[in-house]
Design goal:
Helix content is 81%, strand content 0%. The protein is built from seven helices and no strands. The longest helix is centred in the first third of the chain and has 56 residues, at 32-87. The chain starts with a helix and ends with a helix. Residues 103-108 have low confidence and may be disordered.
């Protein structure tokens, strides 16, 4: 199988975890504290991955300047886009509780774009990881998959609670999963011949966007219902991803 096609397949696989999580959130009555716990675990996993897989690799390949510019740029772009979406009714598009926007409070397009905004940077990372010898970073894929399950679960549970239809919920997440595959494919094909500094800045941009997303959405959701144990569970997620990265290395 061509490497570019492998990149797309790995992105689709990781994005498919959103659909898995959405199915659990839709068909299974998951206690709020459990949802919060998996969000905390997923947050720890992603923090570990962006620290040891993304930022470290960006620094090694392009140096500090490219890494810093990309990291701050990714955060700024995500913050601006998220602020714009919030103004159009998608402020709580990931929430699992009653704060999730109801159908009469927010446009469906804004919520879908919000979900896309969260997923695309992660998927691009998968494609970029395959530029190093054509082999995917198993740690990156595992981290994104593990964090996508609680993301899909939390958001689908919130959508169901406020009256969104099954067609809407699964339509959104299946579309995001497909977009994730295309983003991973683009991450490989568009940057295959790029200079190391460009790849470094792009990787760091994704890392900045992911960290901003975590602080803006996943961590507050986790803390709200599991505040007594949220930090401990996040540490467990961080340690799991860290161990995986060392075993894979």
């Amino acid at each position: 199988m061509p490497v570019w096609l492998q990149a797309g397949a790995w992105g689709l696989f990781a994005g498919g975890a959103l659909v898995v999580g959405a199915a659990i959130g839709w068909f299974v009555r998951v206690p709020q504290r459990v949802v919060a716990a998996v969000m905390a675990f997923g947050s720890g996993v992603l923090i570990s991955a962006l620290s040891f897989e993304l930022m470290d690799e960006a620094y090694r390949s392009g140096g500090f300047r490219a890494t810093a510019v990309g990291f701050l740029g990714g955060s700024l772009v995500y913050t601006a886009a998220n602020k714009l979406l919030s103004m159009h009714g998608a402020k709580h598009h990931k929430r699992s509780g009653d704060k999730h926007p109801a159908p009469d409070q927010a446009g469906g397009a804004a919520i879908a774009v919000g979900a896309l905004l969260d997923g695309i940077p992660e998927s691009i990372v998968i494609g970029l990881s395959m530029l190093r010898g054509g082999a995917v970073s198993i740690v990156a894929v595992a981290a994104i998959f593990l964090s996508n399950v609680p993301e899909g679960l939390s958001s689908a549970a919130g959508m169901k609670k406020v009256g969104r239809s099954a067609a809407y919920v699964f339509g959104v997440w299946c579309a995001i999963a497909l977009a994730s595959g295309l983003a991973a494919l683009a991450g490989y094909t568009l940057f295959a011949g790029a200079a190391p500094e460009v790849v470094s800045a792009t990787t760091a941009t994704a890392a900045g966007a992911i960290l901003t997303m975590l602080v803006d959405t996943m961590i507050p959701e986790a803390f709200e219902s599991a505040h007594d144990y949220a930090g401990l569970i996040a540490v467990a997620g961080f340690l799991a991803a860290f161990a995986l990265s060392k075993l894979a290395g």
